[in-house]
Write a structure and sequence with these properties.
Layout (H helix, E strand, L loop, with lengths): L6 E11 L7 E11 L4 E5 L6 H9 L6 E7 L12 E4 L11 H11 L4 H14 L15 H13 L5 E5 L7 H18 L2 E6 L2 H7 L2 E5 L6 E6 L14 H28 L1
Parallel strand pairs: 3-7, 3-8, 5-6, 6-7
Antiparallel strand pairs: 1-2, 1-4, 8-9
Helix pairs in contact: 2-3, 2-4, 3-4
Length: 270
């Protein structure tokens, strides 16, 4: 296993996709950024800017067409292996025929962890997301917010060095999203896990992130790197801090023109 202190370094990343029209689509162009260990890095930008694509490159699921992906140890040397990673997706992706406990334990089962150990670890992970007592339920018996917490527990049970969060609350209603943002902020702060968050929500990026990379409309580039220096723990009360308002306005100012440009690109493509 790679060290939890591993940083993920992307240098001049580019990626072009083929399209149905035959005209290549440049998804990412000259993207350079670094995800620091023990920190939460948020990626925010207009729809279609390549946020999720960049996340897949960071995990090693996609090979960039240009540039270089490196995993760096604490001493700056290149690690031969990537850190252990787990992903929480926007869709719940739970097995409807398995209990909540067995859904959470599934990854451990796949790597051969003995039943007693995986059961104990799954129970512990469910307790961390306030779902103790729901182990024998099935996904259909849980609300959307509870199912997303199961997805988070399924990632945490693997004890990853890096937690990847791809629009984890995008399918939830606004009230549930606020509560889960606070819960996730608390979990990340307590664990010290390195986390990469893809989001469309400025509020979510500020509440959870230590660093925010603002991306441009396609082809995706890094428009700005913003440090979030608000004190932790963070919660809804943080949004009343004047510094939060300043950060929000700065990020919105960067995003607004890019969102308008993305909308214009979509109209031309249509």
């Amino acid at each position: 296993m790679a060290s939890p202190a591993t940083a993920i370094d992307l240098q001049s990343i580019g990626l072009t996709f083929a399209s149905r029209t035959g005209v290549p689509v440049v998804a990412l162009k000259d993207v350079s950024c670094r995800f620091e260990p023990g920190k939460v890095t948020a990626l925010i930008g207009p729809s279609g800017c390549g946020k999720s694509t960049l996340l897949q490159i960071a995990r090693g699921f996609l090979a960039p067409g240009a540039g270089r992906l490196r995993y760096l140890a604490a001493d700056g040397s290149e690690s031969p292996r990537p850190p252990e990673m787990a992903t929480v997706w926007q869709s719940f992706n739970l097995f409807p025929w398995r209990t909540i406990l067995d859904n959470v334990a599934f990854g451990l089962e796949m790597i051969g962890v003995p039943r007693a150990e995986r059961t104990a670890r799954a129970r512990e992970a469910l307790a961390r997301v306030d779902l103790a007592g729901f182990e024998d339920k099935f996904p259909r018996q849980l609300s959307g917010g509870m199912r997303q917490r199961v997805g988070l527990a399924r990632a945490l049970v693997m004890k990853p060095d890096v937690l990847l969060l791809d629009e984890p609350f995008g399918a939830l209603d606004a009230q549930t999203r606020l509560v889960l943002q606070e819960q996730l902020a608390k979990l990340v702060e307590e664990s010290g896990t390195t986390a990469l968050l893809v989001t469309h929500s400025i509020e979510e990026a500020i509440l959870l992130g230590d660093t925010i990379f603002v991306m441009t409309a396609r082809p995706g580039r890094i428009a700005a790197e913003i440090a979030v220096e608000l004190p932790r723990p963070r919660s809804l009360a943080t949004t009343h801090d004047p510094r939060y308002g300043e950060l929000f306005d700065r990020i919105y100012g960067l995003l607004r023109d890019e969102v308008v440009r993305a909308m214009a690109n979509d109209r031309e493509a249509g």
